Amino acid sequence: MREARTLVGWGAAATPYYNTDASEVNVNIHWCAVPVESYDGTEAVTRASQVTVVDPSRPERVGHHHIDQARAWMLHGNRDRALAELNEARRISPHHTRIHPSVRETVRALAAARRSTGSLARFARWAGIRT
User: Fold this and answer.
1) Which of 17, 62, 88, 107 could form a disulfide with 66 if both were Cys (CB 3.0 to 4.6 A apart)?
2) Rounded to an integer, what distance in angstroms lies between the CA atom of residue 114 and that of residue 131?
3) What's this model's pTM, rounded to 2 decimal places?
4) Residue 40 to residues 1, 35, 93, Cα–Cα distance (Å)
5) CB–CB of 25/58 below 8 Å?
6) Opening angle at CA 14, ends 51 and 8, nearest 5
7) Is the confidence at residue 63, as pLDDT, over 60?
């Protein structure tokens, strides 16, 4: 992540590594996502509270951030916030959210962790997920 941060400012066309997106938004998204991959939801939500991830020209990347944050909040133990993040991803990038494998995993984990709520069931139906 340190190396990626040194590339911020180069821009996608000028980056010294072929086809590497070293934009600030992408670096921030990955910085927040790294702890999720290590099952450290607390660190992921802490990091996300320190950055703003907004880029209207790249809804799939911003939506992906919210998908990662849904996983982070689920790991952190806040299932309501996890569902809120999934709905935010849906609002920003509906197609990407509907087909993303992490969304399916997160919805199934939320459903298994507690009795399914109406809002979770509606989200699962929208995404075509059988819980």
Assistant:
1) 88
2) 12
3) 0.82
4) 17, 5, 25
5) yes
6) 20
7) yes
